[in-house]
Amino acid sequence: MCCCLRSIVFYFVVVLFILGDVTADDNCKSGFFGWKCRFRCNCKDGQSCDQSSGDCPTGCHDNSWGPGCILNNKCAYNDIRYENYVGTLTKTEYGHTCAVWTLQKSYPGDQFPDDSLEDANNYCRNPKPLTYKTWCYYSEDNRTDWDYCNIQKCSCPLGRFGNNCRHECHCRDANEACNQTTGFCQSGCNRQWNGTFCQDGPYDKSELYDNAKNKTSHDTSSDTSINVNWVNPILISLPEVPDVSG
Ligand SMILES: *[C@@H]1O[C@H](CO)[C@@H](O)[C@H](O)[C@H]1NC(C)=O
Ligand SMILES: *[C@@H]1O[C@H](CO)[C@@H](O)[C@H](O)[C@H]1NC(C)=O
Ligand SMILES: *[C@@H]1O[C@H](CO)[C@@H](O)[C@H](O)[C@H]1NC(C)=O
Ligand SMILES: *[C@@H]1O[C@H](CO)[C@@H](O)[C@H](O)[C@H]1NC(C)=O
């Protein structure tokens, strides 16, 4: 009886230990995502995001878009013609409110970066593209016209690069933010990754989110310190989209 109880307690402790270890190893803290959990997502209503992709369950917090909603609505990123902008800005540079694209027959859905014309809603876009700016139609006083949207070119948040900042850096020095346009890492690729832009990998999946656990020892030859959480400085420093409707 006493031995039976003892073994039950023993297994209970073992199970707790394993569970605790699994959560510590495999999960980012709520609200963080990406390799080594370095990015803080910006979901609607403060919801937590998918720890790998940063996808939010019901979309982005106001004025944000992109992976983990860490991009600014008034910015396009490594997108020369603004043709891949899929942010949610709905005001033109003269303050008109954009009309839904479905009202326009001249632009089929496949000319949009969105999955469908419906997804483009009434957001500033550069379908086709014919110009080097985003724009939209608007309807006022029984007439329809169009206007450009004032979207800037911005640098990707630290730790990301490429068109729409869709790629993450995986530099040998995990604290190095690679070139925000090209992805080049001065320190080379992290040992779990290779390829020109360190995008092939990881070769050991257990390394994916290991910033979430408190390591007592780790291979200092590759990651020096890995407690960087890259919150997007652009989101914090740029002003909100002004309300120009009034
Ligand atoms: C728009 O058209 C409707 C119907 O043709 C008309 O009643 C209304 O006065 C017009 N509004 C403006 C602002 O011109
Ligand atoms: C990133 O690389 C581009 C192209 O080589 C270069 O023009 C740019 O200055 C680099 N950016 C930084 C921050 O080093
Ligand atoms: C990338 O790394 C893996 C594992 O270390 C290795 O098998 C593979 O050959 C490497 N590929 C290149 C192109 O270096
Ligand atoms: C990691 O360890 C430090 C120091 O022991 C502690 O202050 C911190 O709260 C720990 N973090 C986590 C996520 O357990």
UniProtKB/TrEMBL annotation:
Entry annotated with the keyword tRNA-binding: no
Pfam families xref list: Kringle
BP term (GO), one: dendrite development
An annotated Gene Ontology molecular function: low-density lipoprotein particle binding
Keyword field: Disulfide bond, EGF-like domain, Kringle, Signal
Name assigned to this protein: Kringle domain-containing protein
Signal peptide: 1-24
PANTHER family to which the protein is assigned, alphabetical: SCAVENGER RECEPTOR CLASS F (PTHR24043), SCAVENGER RECEPTOR CLASS F MEMBER 1 (PTHR24043:SF0)
UniProt keyword Signal, yes or no: yes
Domain Kringle, first and last residues per copy: 83-154
Annotated Gene Ontology cellular component terms: membrane
Matching SMART domains: KR
